[in-house]
């Protein structure tokens, strides 16, 4: 683990002096007369989750942390303090990577140095018009984000008109609860012999697991969450997949929903009876409540919301209560959980692997969608488990990694070599991945272990699910840092680009940042069998130059190496993108852009 050191990284700083400076950039001292809009303080301690105590990393003393509101066209500063004495911290602004200042993506050893104990870092975020939507923030170190997370909402610009009318806004933030603590889980996942994290014991909604009744729960953290509504109104429900692994479905008894947003972008309306989402995904859906006459005819004012996981050895579930605030009906909430299931949710894999596929379109037409004939390179990435220093004979004997075209990347492995973040290396040494070497090696450069892309390229990235030595398949919510991509859909079997392109003759896919590579069966007859794909299209421009993670958002899989580091642009293009005086305080661990109790940092205001 990197901890604070006052020793300069002499080689990097010396190299930095070789980069031409630009006098237009002037760092600003963030002293006593400067205040951020928000302050997040990371701590570790015992909190109550699912009616039990767990030692966890949290932000501002709660899980989830406070809701942050940003606005289109306006810069917001968030100061993140690390008050954990023995671990580093970062915060990633999930879905807003392209709207953060350089070195502020929150990915340690990719875009920035982590925040050392008792230091802080000021993050600058500037949503653009069109970014209004649902996001979240979370730590990007180890297993922290199972509890160190919170909702982030980008509101429309001042005086802008919302494209959909609604009377209330109801966030629904879902997360997982694990019996084991973070450190134990991380140690097991990286150990030889390998030890799996185990399965979540509960799915938590807004801090409550909903698996105990109001009458039997020992405290509020395992009671059903209460969603208060009024008759004859329309509410925006924001479903946020803050889970570590759980792939969820949620529906409301006697009510349908209308999808209006996916991953921070408004979509054309699509009606549905339920919503499904994996880790990292977000959807907004309109809920139109019943009228008072309808409620009186039904003789009830409370309706159950059911949520449950899919495709795991054990699938946790929970309940929430949609409670109508109205007169003339029994006011008491239901004290017991339902004896029968009042909310039908699909169990057929064919049904839920097709949910919203080739359906969601941007509300505002996008004329920038590249067609197949514009694609300059297709990168096929096969993902499977690999036994390390051992073998598989019905059980795993040795360590276990996830690999992408035989490459595993995790923060812990990269950190062992005391390597600087990729973005820092690119600035201080000019080193970026060797493009030709990568092309000859399945897309990644063997020396830097990174995946290069050139400005002007239009990439099709095709993720392929492989059963590996254990013959097993998993769901993988694939997430991209940087610019949102065009999601080209998914399917079982083999990807056929020409056949798939036919679906875009009268349909333009919505831009996304997290979509699911599905598990179409639990296992294969033979090891290392490929079945299932998810495809993306990305146009690489000067606006998305940088170092970006593209990875599975399942926390355990990330720690096991299911991450790829991409570098868009070469060393000269990166140096041109950010002026030299801006970067000097960001080039060393605990540099002058990081503050502490006795030091006020020098920070560049990128969006001023």
Automatic annotation (TrEMBL):
<dbReference type="InterPro" id="IPR017762">
    <property type="entry name" value="Multicopper_oxidase_fun"/>
</dbReference>
<dbReference type="GO" id="GO:0005507">
    <property type="term" value="F:copper ion binding"/>
</dbReference>
<dbReference type="Pfam" id="PF07731">
    <property type="entry name" value="Cu-oxidase_2"/>
</dbReference>
<dbReference type="InterPro" id="IPR001117">
    <property type="entry name" value="Cu-oxidase_2nd"/>
</dbReference>
<feature type="signal peptide">
    <location>
        <begin position="1"/>
        <end position="24"/>
    </location>
</feature>
<dbReference type="InterPro" id="IPR002355">
    <property type="entry name" value="Cu_oxidase_Cu_BS"/>
</dbReference>
<keyword id="KW-0560">Oxidoreductase</keyword>
<feature type="domain" description="Plastocyanin-like">
    <location>
        <begin position="170"/>
        <end position="326"/>
    </location>
</feature>
<keyword id="KW-0325">Glycoprotein</keyword>
<dbReference type="InterPro" id="IPR011707">
    <property type="entry name" value="Cu-oxidase-like_N"/>
</dbReference>
<feature type="domain" description="Plastocyanin-like">
    <location>
        <begin position="43"/>
        <end position="157"/>
    </location>
</feature>
<dbReference type="InterPro" id="IPR045087">
    <property type="entry name" value="Cu-oxidase_fam"/>
</dbReference>
<dbReference type="Pfam" id="PF00394">
    <property type="entry name" value="Cu-oxidase"/>
</dbReference>
<dbReference type="InterPro" id="IPR011706">
    <property type="entry name" value="Cu-oxidase_C"/>
</dbReference>
<dbReference type="InterPro" id="IPR033138">
    <property type="entry name" value="Cu_oxidase_CS"/>
</dbReference>
<dbReference type="InterPro" id="IPR035666">
    <property type="entry name" value="MCO_CuRO_3"/>
</dbReference>
<keyword id="KW-0479">Metal-binding</keyword>
<keyword id="KW-0732">Signal</keyword>
<comment type="similarity">
    <text>Belongs to the multicopper oxidase family.</text>
</comment>
<dbReference type="GO" id="GO:0016491">
    <property type="term" value="F:oxidoreductase activity"/>
</dbReference>
<dbReference type="Pfam" id="PF07732">
    <property type="entry name" value="Cu-oxidase_3"/>
</dbReference>
<protein>
    <submittedName>
        <fullName>Cupredoxin</fullName>
    </submittedName>
</protein>
<keyword id="KW-0186">Copper</keyword>
<dbReference type="InterPro" id="IPR008972">
    <property type="entry name" value="Cupredoxin"/>
</dbReference>
<feature type="domain" description="Plastocyanin-like">
    <location>
        <begin position="430"/>
        <end position="567"/>
    </location>
</feature>
């Amino acid at each position: 683990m990197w901890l604070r050191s006052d020793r300069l990284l002499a080689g990097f700083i010396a190299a930095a002096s070789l980069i031409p400076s630009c006098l237009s950039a002037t760092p600003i001292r963030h002293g006593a007369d400067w205040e951020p809009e928000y302050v997040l303080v990371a701590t570790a301690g015992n909190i109550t989750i699912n009616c039990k105590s767990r030692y966890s990393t949290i932000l501002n003393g709660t899980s989830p942390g406070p809701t942050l509101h940003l606005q289109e066209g306006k810069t917001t500063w968030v100061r993140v303090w690390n008050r954990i004495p023995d671990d580093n911290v970062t915060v990633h602004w999930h879905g807003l990577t392209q709207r953060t200042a350089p070195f502020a993506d929150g990915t340690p050893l990719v875009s920035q140095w982590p925040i050392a104990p008792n230091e802080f870092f000021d993050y600058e975020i500037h949503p653009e018009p069109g970014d209004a939507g649902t996001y979240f923030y979370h730590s990007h170190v180890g297993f922290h984000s199972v509890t160190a997370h919170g909702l982030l909402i980008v509101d429309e610009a001042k005086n802008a008109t919302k494209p959909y009318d609604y009377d209330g806004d109801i966030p629904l933030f879902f997360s997982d609860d694990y019996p084991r603590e973070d450190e134990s889980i991380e140690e097991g996942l990286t150990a030889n012999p390998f030890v799996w994290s185990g399965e979540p014991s509960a799915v938590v909604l807004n801090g409550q697991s909903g698996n105990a009744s109001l009458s039997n729960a020992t405290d509020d953290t395992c009671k059903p969450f209460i969603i208060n509504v009024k008759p004859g109104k329309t509410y925006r429900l924001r479903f946020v997949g803050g889970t570590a692994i759980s792939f969820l479905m949620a529906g409301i008894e006697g009510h349908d929903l209308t999808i209006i947003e996916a991953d921070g972008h408004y979509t054309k309306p699509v009606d549905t009876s339920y919503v499904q989402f994996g880790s990292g995904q977000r959807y907004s859906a309109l809920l139109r409540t019943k009228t008072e006459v309808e409620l009186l005819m039904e003789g009830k004012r409370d309706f159950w919301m059911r949520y449950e996981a899919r495709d795991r050895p054990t699938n946790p579930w929970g309940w929430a209560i949609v409670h109508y605030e109205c007169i003339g009906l029994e006011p008491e909430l239901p004290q017991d959980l339902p004896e029968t299931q009042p909310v039908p949710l699909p169990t057929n894999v064919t049904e839920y692997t097709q949910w919203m596929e080739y359906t969601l379109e941007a509300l505002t037409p996008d004329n920038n969608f590249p067609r197949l004939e514009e694609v300059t390179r297709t990168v096929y990435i096969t993902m499977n488990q690999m036994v390390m220093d051992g073998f598989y004979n019905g059980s795993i004997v040795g360590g276990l990694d996830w690999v992408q075209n035989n490459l595993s990347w995790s923060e812990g492995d990269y950190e062992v070599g005391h390597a600087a973040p990729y973005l820092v290396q690119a600035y201080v040494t000019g080193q970026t991945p060797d493009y030709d070497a990568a092309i000859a090696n399945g897309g990644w450069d063997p020396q830097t272990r990174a995946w290069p892309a050139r400005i002007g390229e239009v990439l099709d990235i095709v993720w392929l699910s492989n059963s590996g030595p254990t013959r097993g398949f998993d769901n993988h919510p694939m997430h991209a840092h940087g610019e949102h991509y065009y999601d080209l859909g998914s399917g079982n079997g083999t990807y056929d680009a020409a056949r798939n392109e036919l679906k875009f003759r009268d349909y333009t896919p919505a831009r996304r940042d997290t979509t699911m590579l599905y598990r179409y069966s639990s296992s294969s007859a033979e090891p290392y069998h490929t079945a299932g794909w998810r495809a993306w299209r990305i146009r690489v421009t000067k606006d998305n130059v940088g170092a970006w993670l593209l990875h599975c958002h399942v926390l355990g899989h990330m720690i096991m190496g299911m991450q790829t580091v991409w570098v868009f642009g070469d060393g000269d293009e990166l140096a041109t993108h950010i002026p030299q005086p801006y970067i000097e305080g960001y080039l060393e661990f605990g540099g002058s852009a990081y503050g502490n109790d006795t030091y006020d940092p020098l920070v560049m205001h990128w969006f001023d």
